[in-house]
C-alpha cells in the first residue's frame, strides 16, 4: 500500500509539473484571431532570453509545417560557430485550447511539453513576440533575418511592460561570418 501511495504521489507531482509547463505567465495573454496556416513556414530568431539549448548558436531559424495528425512539426536550427556545424532539434506542437488562440504546447523530448505563447503578432505575420510558460523564455521572431528598428523597439517595450528582463535579451547574429 505504501509503495502504491508513493508511486501515485510521484505521478501526481509529475502531472502538476507537466500541466504547469503549458500555462502562461501571470498577466500575459496569447493573441486571439491566430491563423496557423499563415504562421507556418520559416521564422528567423532576432532576439531571445538566454538558455543553454541555444547558447552559442547564430543564424537560428524555426520552421513550422503541418503534421498528419493535425499538429505542427517544429524544426529549430542554428549554427554552432565553435563546432563549425549546424545543430537541429525536431519537435511537435499542438494547440492548448482553441486553434484561433496563439497558445500551443511544444515538445522536443517525448511526452514533456512546454508553452509556446504568441503574445504579439504583426497583422501580416511578418514578426512575432513569443513567450514560454514563464518570463524566463522570450523570443522576437521575424520572417526575414533583419527587423526594422522601430518594430524592435515596440516589441522590446511591450515585453518590458509585461515584466520580461529585456535588458538581458541576446541579439542573434543572422549572417555568416
From TrEMBL:
Keywords: Cell outer membrane, Lipid-binding, Lipoprotein, Membrane
Family annotation (CDD domains): lipocalin_Blc-like
InterPro entries: Calycin, Lipocalin_ApoD, Lipocalin_bac, Lipocalin_Blc-like_dom, Lipocalin_CS, Lipocln_cytosolic_FA-bd_dom
Record carries keyword Membrane: yes
UniProt similarity note: Belongs to the calycin superfamily. Lipocalin family.
Subunit relationships: Homodimer.
Protein name according to UniProt: Outer membrane lipoprotein Blc
Amino acid at each position: 500500500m505504501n509503495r502504491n501511495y508513493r508511486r501515485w504521489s510521484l505521478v501526481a507531482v509529475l502531472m502538476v509539473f507537466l500541466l504547469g509547463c503549458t500555462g502562461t505567465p501571470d498577466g500575459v495573454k496569447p493573441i486571439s484571431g491566430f491563423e496557423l496556416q499563415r504562421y507556418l513556414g520559416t521564422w528567423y530568431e532576432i532576439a531571445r532570453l538566454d538558455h543553454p539549448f541555444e547558447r552559442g548558436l547564430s543564424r537560428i531559424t524555426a520552421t513550422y509545417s503541418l503534421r498528419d495528425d493535425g499538429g505542427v512539426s517544429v524544426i529549430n536550427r542554428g549554427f554552432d560557430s565553435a563546432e563549425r556545424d549546424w545543430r537541429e532539434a525536431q519537435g511537435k506542437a499542438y494547440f492548448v485550447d482553441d486553434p484561433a488562440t496563439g497558445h500551443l504546447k511544444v515538445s522536443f523530448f517525448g511526452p514533456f511539453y512546454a508553452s509556446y505563447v504568441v503574445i504579439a503578432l504583426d497583422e501580416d505575420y511578418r514578426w512575432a513576440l513569443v513567450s514560454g510558460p514563464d518570463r524566463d523564455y522570450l523570443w522576437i521572431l521575424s520572417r526575414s533575418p533583419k527587423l526594422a528598428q522601430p518594430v524592435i523597439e515596440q516589441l522590446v517595450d511591450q515585453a518590458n511592460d509585461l515584466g520580461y528582463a529585456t535588458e538581458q535579451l541576446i541579439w542573434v547574429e543572422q549572417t555568416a561570418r
